[in-house]
Amino acid sequence: MAALETFTQFYMQMPPVTRVYTSACVLTTLAVQLEIVSPFQLYFNPRLIFYNFQVRMIDCLDIDYYRTSCLKQIWRILTTFLFHGPIGFSFMFNIIFTYRHCAMLEEGSFRSRTADFVYMLFLGALMMCIIGLFVNLLFLGHAFTIMLVYIWSRHNEHVLMNFFGLFNFHAPYLPWVLLGFSFILGNSIIIDLLGIAVGHIYYYLETICPARFGFRLLKTPRFL
């Protein structure tokens, strides 16, 4: 009972945007793990999102599938960022990094700027989806995490970090250390590079441009 109260207190003390996004990631992964939904219903597929993908009745005996396949599957724009793979080491690693850096950004660089934080997340997701139209990328959750890590690292350049007790480095190198870790594990580094690229574009437009040229290209909409 005490453990449940401790967890509830910890959960409710999480920054609101971080709490919503992290919860959505965990619940989506659990839904896949429990076979409530399939990863095939979640991955990013522009054809299924933007076009009416129709299946001939003669080729499909499941009428319900025929009906849903004729609808634009808009939810994939969101779910591609929520599924971090089956529950295991990789999932735990990603979800911890997602929570940690999302929370540190929300409570640090974006403190009292919730609208700006939400707009940053939206722009990052939008850029990744646009790139996904031209590159075969199925799930973008890891890239989204790397984007958060990159933006946090650029705002905290003097923070000294340690990677599993192996070596020390300053925060700006963290995205590249994670990229190297992905390579060692045999994973594709394209997703890491995408997260780094999108994170750098946002950081450049939001932070470097105003300091160097005296004007802001990114302005948070008033309705946020």
TrEMBL record:
<feature type="transmembrane region" description="Helical">
    <location>
        <begin position="159"/>
        <end position="178"/>
    </location>
</feature>
<dbReference type="GO" id="GO:0005789">
    <property type="term" value="C:endoplasmic reticulum membrane"/>
</dbReference>
<feature type="transmembrane region" description="Helical">
    <location>
        <begin position="77"/>
        <end position="99"/>
    </location>
</feature>
<keyword id="KW-1133">Transmembrane helix</keyword>
<protein>
    <recommendedName>
        <fullName>Derlin</fullName>
    </recommendedName>
</protein>
<dbReference type="InterPro" id="IPR035952">
    <property type="entry name" value="Rhomboid-like_sf"/>
</dbReference>
<feature type="transmembrane region" description="Helical">
    <location>
        <begin position="119"/>
        <end position="152"/>
    </location>
</feature>
<dbReference type="GO" id="GO:0036503">
    <property type="term" value="P:ERAD pathway"/>
</dbReference>
<keyword id="KW-0256">Endoplasmic reticulum</keyword>
<feature type="transmembrane region" description="Helical">
    <location>
        <begin position="20"/>
        <end position="44"/>
    </location>
</feature>
<comment type="function">
    <text>May be involved in the degradation of misfolded endoplasmic reticulum (ER) luminal proteins.</text>
</comment>
<comment type="similarity">
    <text>Belongs to the derlin family.</text>
</comment>
<keyword id="KW-0812">Transmembrane</keyword>
<keyword id="KW-0472">Membrane</keyword>
<dbReference type="Pfam" id="PF04511">
    <property type="entry name" value="DER1"/>
</dbReference>
<feature type="transmembrane region" description="Helical">
    <location>
        <begin position="184"/>
        <end position="205"/>
    </location>
</feature>
<dbReference type="InterPro" id="IPR007599">
    <property type="entry name" value="DER1"/>
</dbReference>
